[in-house]
Amino acid sequence: MRNRVFIFLVILLNSFNNNAQIANTFTAANAQITDTLISSGRLQANCIHATDTIVADLGVVSNDNMRVVGDINLSGSLVFDGVNSEGLKYIAPNTINNPFPILSLGKTIGQNTPWVQNCPTPGLNPWFATSGGFISTATNPNNQVNAGLKIYSAPWNGFGFIEVEGVNEVGMGNNALEINYFCGRNTHINKNSSLSNGGGWVRMGTQVSMDKHVEIGDPINGINDPNNTALQIHANDGKGLVFKTWNGSVKLISLDFAATPGLSPFTVYGDGKTIIGTEKVVGTHADAKLQVAGKAACKSFYVLKPTTWQDRVFTSSYKLMELKKVEQFIKTNKHLPGLPSEKEIIENGYDVNEMDAKLLEKIENLYLYIIKQQEEIDILKKALKNSK
Hints:
Elements: H1 2-14, E1 15-16, E2 20-22, E3 26-33, E4 36-39, E5 42-50, E6 53-56, E7 59-62, E8 88-91, E9 102-105, E10 127-128, E11 133-139, E12 146-153, E13 160-167, E14 251-254, E15 266-269, E16 274-276, E17 290-292, H2 323-333, H3 342-348, H4 352-386
């Protein structure tokens, strides 16, 4: 008789067929409900199995794991306060498209807090909290991937951090943070220029690498701010700006002036050739390293290591042309001997160093003519004086 009563109590406490409604708190070691369990108080059990719905006005407390096949609808909070709690875990079917089916949210024992970096090897368990941070980890049984991504707020200065940890598929610690890798969407950082600080600064570390294109300002209207500096480089040592190329004909710097579309007024090529103005030099001097299509002004101009000079005029081997021959040459050619004609200068231009040397030669010729003329004058004066 005693055994029959005990069995009846166990069945009464542990198994409810169809609907079960409890007015106050319900506590049991195990409970199996084939339909719906409704409680206006609190449900507490090591294991509750309901094939339909569990409704509790005050809460559902489980001292062990709780497995839910359907949905969880909460009007309050979901709390995991156990020391060894694994939090909320979602297990999806393991398929080819989803080889890592487990999603876990919660705090696990032994997991470092977000601001403790594990750069070489991250923890295997994910961590999530509304005040602290979020950690996502990934491992791959087919290679050496063991990586983690942390997003958190630092308690020591209030900064927000996004940190990539762990190793890539070959066990190297150069796994990167990829943003908009698959869909290629635009990435906006501090884009709200209407703020009082203009949107704030975006600061990089010691190295910034771009694959193709860097653009500053609006591509249509530019930057309409007279106090703005589009590109500012602060360099106190080393190199402020370096261009590296393997092609001497590439345009390293090309100024695109809206008034002359397609014609750059300033171009620097890979081999160092620099063209200022919209007209290129053609013909004999097309290889000039500096071409200026317009007026150039400077306070000082030096020709280093000139190829020729004219001090040879004052040597004994120099043959000074007789003035009669010079006179005859001028009458015939309309320019001095040894100098190009006006037509030649217009067509070909002239070498400044070469022209300076030739003009100096003519000046030195004049001095020689004057000296010789003075000698003749002195002889005539002496003869005149002796004739008196």
